[in-house]
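fyi for ur records
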Amino acid sequence: MTPFVIFGAGGFARELLGWIAGCGPETRARFQVAAWISEGDDVGSVLHGIPVVTPDTWEGPAPRFVIAVADPATKKRVAIAMAARGWQAETFIHDTAAVGLAPRIGAGTIICPQCRISTDCEIGEHVLVNSSSGIGHDAVVGSYSSLLGAVSVNGNVKLGEGVLMGAGSMVYPGKKVGDWAKIGLGSVVLRSVAANATMFGNPARRIDPS
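which gave:
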């Protein structure tokens, strides 16, 4: 089988390793991690028995990979760079995730434990759906978006590219969130959100991100 690597070696990457270990034997075999891929000071170290290397020092055939970082802009940059190397984006769905009928899930997406993916929704490439989050029927989640835990994207919601939703946030059914918008943790979006806006509160209001 083509080797599998995780880009990133931070907190979420280590959580992902643990969640893989908690899956059944078929999933564990498919996602046996050969290396952490990093651009940081940890390169050259060994983390949980797995070497930390750069893309340039990876030895072996072009691997399958996921990007275990939350920042949408970083994910897009890394995804483009890895694709240029001929590396293959892999999709990880935890064994405990509940997946409905006919969802469309893009390459590189990570769906964590206890998530709920409903019928006929569309999830783009390299999306992070962290633990206990839900995506409702007919919803659309744009590529490189990150849902950071216990997030609720209700039915017919449309998230643009690179949306960042903080833990515990939610979007009212049928609303739209524009590209690269940020929704603060615990916020409740009752109205559609413009591109690049930063929203916080219940109900969510636009704030100055500084």
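The first helix runs from residue 11 to 21. thats all i got for now
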